Amino acid sequence: RLCTSPGQLRGNTYDYIVVGAGTAGNVIAARLAENGANDVLVLEAGVSNEGVLAAQVPFMGPTLTPNTPYDWNYTVTPQTHLNGRTFPFPRGRILGGSSSVNYLVHQYGSSADYDRLARITGDPGWAWRNLRRYIDRHEKFVPPADGHNTNGQYIPSLHSTRGILPKSLPGFSHGIDARVIATTQELSAEFPFNPDTGGGDVLGLGWVQSSIGDGTRSSSATTYLNSVINRRNVDVLVNAYVTKLVRTGTVGGKPSFRGVQFANGPQSPTTNVFARKEVILSAGAFGTPQILQLSGIGDRAELTTKSITTIVNNPSVGKNMSDHVLLPNNWRVQGTESLDNLLRDPVAFGAALDQWQTSKTGVLSNGVTNHLGFFRLPNNSPIFATTPDPASGPTASHWEMIVSNFWINPAVPQPATGSYLTLISALISPTSRGTLKLASNNPFQAPLIDPNFLATDFDRYAMRESVRAVKRFAGANAWSDYVIEPVGDLAAQTDEAIDAYVRSISTTVFHPVGTASMSPRNAAWGVVDPELRLKGAEGVRIVDASVWPFVPNAHTQGPVYLVAERAASIIRGY
Ligand SMILES: Cc1cc2nc3c(=O)[nH]c(=O)nc-3n(C[C@H](O)[C@H](O)[C@H](O)COP(=O)(O)OP(=O)(O)OC[C@H]3O[C@@H](n4cnc5c(N)ncnc54)[C@H](O)[C@@H]3O)c2cc1C
User: Which residues are listed for FAD binding in this entry (predicted)?
Assistant: First the structure.
C-alpha cells in the first residue's frame, strides 16, 4: 500500500525495511515482496511519482531537475580544478528516485567493469558472465514509439523481452541521424559503428537504448514498485525522511542497527521502526553515506567534529566518490532541423505535447540523444608514460561522446536565436576521487558534496583529447553542409586554451558512485562486503550506486539495476 503518513503503517516492525524507494530500493522491495511471507516497509523522503507529467514524458525529463520539488537540489562545493565553480548536482527525490528524473539512457557498461568488480571484491559472482543473467529478468525490450524498422540498430539476441522494465530504441528520428551514421563510416578507424553495447562491448558509437516503453518513461517506480504496491505485505511511506539508523543491540560482538528513525521534516516528531531481518539502505550515493555518518558510522575524526558519537569507526564512509565529468561542446548549425526552436516556442511545444498525450509519439516520446559512443585514448598517448591506464580493461573506454540535436549546456543558457549541435564529451575512467561529508549533525542540512573533478593529470589530459576528438567528428565531410562554427572557446587549439575551456564549463553527468564501496570481506578499506553487508555492524545491507567501487562504462542506472537484482537474490538466498 502507498501510505502518506506514519499513522497508516500496519505497525512498527517489519521483516525488511528499505530506506529509499529509488532505483535500487524498489528492486529490493519488489523482489523481497514477491514472496508473500516477507513483510516489507519502504521509506521514501520524496513524493509519489503518480500524476507527475514530466516524469512520464521522456523529453521533459530534464525539466525535473534542478530546483524543483522532485530534486534534492544539491550544489557541489567549490571545485578547485574548475575555477572554483559550484553547480547543481541533481538527485531524484520522488518514488523511483533518480530513475524517475534521469535522462533515460539505459545500458550496462563494459564486461570489463564487472570483471574488475569481481577482481576488486574477490567475489566471482560479480563477474559479467554471472551478472549478465540478471538482464533477463530486468529488461523487456519493446518496439520504439514510432514503430520504425530497427534492423541493424541493435542485436536482439543480447536482450530480453521477458523482464520487468520496458526499454527501446529511439522513438523519433532526427535529420542529423544519417550524418552521425555516415561519420562512423567516413571516420571508421576513430569512430567505428557499434551495433549494441548490451553484450559488454562498449567501444564505438551506436543507437541509444532508453528506459522508455510505449513512448513513456520506465522508472523503478512504474515497474518494480508498481508490481507489488497493492500487495498486503508491502507498505510504502512517502514524505518519510530517514534521519538515522537506530542501534538495537549487539549481535556476535558487533553493533546491530535494526532500527530506522524518520520524520516528515525538521519540525515534525520522529518515528522509529524496526526490522526483524534486515535494514536495506538504498538512499543513493549521497543519501546512504549521509545516513551512515548521522548514525555514528564513519570516520571517527570527522564525526567527532560534528559532535556525533562514533559507533563504527570506518574512514571509508563517504570517500572514494567517482563520477563522469560532462563537457558540453556546442556548434552553430544551418537550417531549422535542430530542436532549438521547439524549446523556444511554447506553441510548437504545446503541439508536441498534444501529440504525446494523444498517441505517445512524436519528438517528446524520445530522450535527449539518439546516438552515443565510448572511445579510448590511443595506446601510445604520452599520458600513459606517467599514469597506468585507468580503464577497466583494454576493451573499456576513457571517454564518451553523446550527440544531441539542440543546445545542451548546463553552464550557458540556450541562445535566443540559432540552431545548434551538441557533442557532449564525458570522462569515463576518472582517476580523481571525491568525498561526501556531513556539514553538521543536523540530518536536514545538505551534506558537503565534493566530486573533486579533474584533480589529476590523467583526467585533464583525457578531457583535452576528447575535445580534439569531438572536433574531428564534427569536421567530417558528413557535416560540411550543416556545421557552421564552434561556439565560444570550443575553438581553442592549444593545450592551455583547451584546458581553460574545459575548466570553465565542465559539470557532472550525474553518475556518482563509490561512497559506500564494496571491498573484499576482510579488507581494511571499504564499507560493505561482497554480499553488501555493512562492515563492522550487523543487520544492515547497502544496495545502491554507492557500492560500486568505481564508475563503470555506462550511464549508471543499468549497472545499479543489475547490482540490485543480484543483491535481491543474495538476500533471498538464491
Ligand atoms: C538528472 C539525472 C540524469 C541522469 N541521467 C541518467 C541516464 O540518462 N541514464 C542512466 O543510466 N543514469 C542516469 N542518471 C544516473 C542514475 O539515474 C543513477 O545512477 C541511479 O538512478 C542511482 O540509483 P540509486 O538507487 O543509487 O539512487 P536513487 O535512484 O537516487 O535513489 C535514492 C532514493 O533514496 C531516497 N532518499 C535519499 N535520502 C533519503 C533519506 N534520508 N530518507 C528517505 N529517503 C531518502 C531518494 O529520495 C531516492 O528516492 C541520471 C541521474 C540524474 C539525477
Answer: 102-105, 242
Domain that holds residue 538: 2-50+221-321+514-572
Q: How many angstroms separate the alpha carbon of residue 47 from the centre of ligand 1?
A: 14
242 is in an annotated binding site: yes
- CB 490 within 8 Å of CB 505: no
Ligand 1 atom with the smallest distance to the CA of 262 is 42
For atom 2 of ligand 1, the residue with the nearest CA is 102
Instruction: Give the residue among 560, 479, 467, 443 at the shortest CA–CA distance from 512.
Output: 560
Quick one: which of 59, 90, 78 has its CA closest to 508?
90
- Tens of pLDDT, residues 384-415: 999 999 999 999 999 999 999 999 999 899 99
| Domain total in the chain | 1
Q: Flag whether pLDDT at 93 surpasses 90.
A: yes
Q: So which residues are the catalytic ones?
A: 511, 555
Residue 18 CB neighbour total at 10 angstroms: 33
The domain that contains 301 carries what CATH number? 3.50.50.60
Among 220, 321, 404, 557, name the best residue to mutate to test ligand 1's pocket (greatest count of ligand atoms within 8 A of Cβ).
557
Place of cell 568525498: 435
**44 CB under 6 A from ligand 1?**
yes
Question: At 318, is the pLDDT very low, low, confident or very high (cuts 50, 70, 90)?
Answer: very high
* Rounded-to-integer distance, Cα 55 and Cα 219, Å: 9
Concatenated DSSP letters of 250-300: EETTEEE--EEEEESSTTSPEEEEEEEEEEEE-SHHHHHHHHHHHTTEE-H
- Please check whether residue 105 is in contact with residue 367, taking contact to mean a CB–CB distance below 8 angstroms: yes
Q: Decide: residue 530, CB within 10 A, 0-12 exposed, 13-18 middle, 19+ buried.
A: buried
Burial 47-73 (b: 16+ CB within 10 A, else e): bbbeebebbbbbbbbbebbbeeebbbb
Does any domain span residue 116?
no
What pLDDT, in 10s, does the model give residues 157-191? 999 999 999 999 999 999 999 999 999 999 999 99
ipTM, two decimals: 1.00
Enumerate residues 6+ apart whose C-beta is below 8 A from 213. 140, 142, 165, 166, 167, 168
Stated pTM of the model:
0.98
Q: Domain for residue 163, yes or no?
A: no
Q: In this structure, is residue 241 part of a structural domain?
A: yes
Q: Residue 369 has which C-alpha cell?
A: 540523444
Ligand 1 pocket check for 543: Cβ under 6 Å: no
**Is the Cβ atom of 91 under 6 angstroms away from ligand 1?**
yes
Residue with cell 503518480: 50
Ligand 1 neighbour 556 (Cβ under 6 A): yes
Q: Which residue has the cell 516528515?
A: 264
